[in-house]
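Contributing new records

If you add data, match the layout below exactly. Sequence lines come first and carry their own label; structure lines follow with theirs. Keep one chain per record. Anything else will be rejected by the validation script.
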Amino acid sequence: MVYWLVSIPAPPAEADACWNSLQEDTTYQSDLSVNFHFKVPDFRVGTLDTLLGLSDDLLKVNSSVEGTVNKIRRQLFELQSSAVSGGGGEEAEEAGSGAALVEGTSPVDYLQHFEWQEAKFPVKRPLKQTIGAITDVIQALDDDLKLRTTEYTQLKTQLQGVLRKRTGSLAVRDLSDVVGPETLVDTENLVTLLVVVPRSSVPEFFKVYETLVDFGVVPRSAALAAEDAEHSVLRVVLFRRAADDFKAAARAKGFTAKEVAADAEAAKGNAEAVQRLRATLEAKRAEFEAWCAASYSEAFGSWIHVLAVRLFVESILRYGLPPQFVPVLMRPNPKHVSKLRKLLASKYAGVGSQFYGGEGGQETDIYPYVSFTLAIEERGA
């Protein structure tokens, strides 16, 4: 949803009349925009040089803070829409039922009813200190986000690697869960090997497997254990002393022979280890989601405070002292954006042109009034 944060030139005594005139032209007589009062405190102004320097800084700070807000929002909704599947362990995309809130309300409601947090950012404190404090908070959030994202991604990758061994192609997966331990011969002298063979080569394997080593393979012991679209797994019993030679001979033929321990407890332990890893990942996901929710609220609120300071600074530089402007939050009708801009340009043309206009972003230079565009995303896009 797109909003414009603007300041309309008007002496304090004419603020109400200016607001009413704007409402009449943009809302009552037409459907150009919905307007909201945007409360900007009476900050300490400082010197002109301070304001000019702050104007340049605010352009960069605003971009940085907005970027962090969007990164946290995207991560939050990715986590909210992801749940570790109880079956394959891959992430199943579901419609996220959560929402990004700012101090318990939606970002749009927070913006439309913005109140400066005096306890957190004292109005009488120099603006440079206020912006410095916000920058420190946002930098800490950004650093923490990177660290948490790395930890969560590593855990997901670890689980995906384990699951690939259990559920991937027979050519690469762990074969311990392909056959039950009770079907494996494992004695002092005999051992069972599982041989992965391309399905097209199974007939050839049955022809040659007994002769791959001399007097090592139990005749007619080969049996199909499992298969997928590309490979078959065959169970072969042979003398333990011939196992290594059989593996080498099979490899020369393009087959892969593997020894699997006939240990039911080990197989059970492997399955339990996967479940523990799933549980660990889900706990990490829930913890990360909670952090993102809290951090989004902090970051979004900080961003709107930066915009309030920026609007004040640019308005002083544009219209001069004492402060003589009306801050307004506008939600333009998407169908009439051009018409609304033309109306505002005509209504406030030339006002404030005798004052120096700070750089403050491209929009400040284009229009005869201070204007910033805000794109408020309430979902994860």
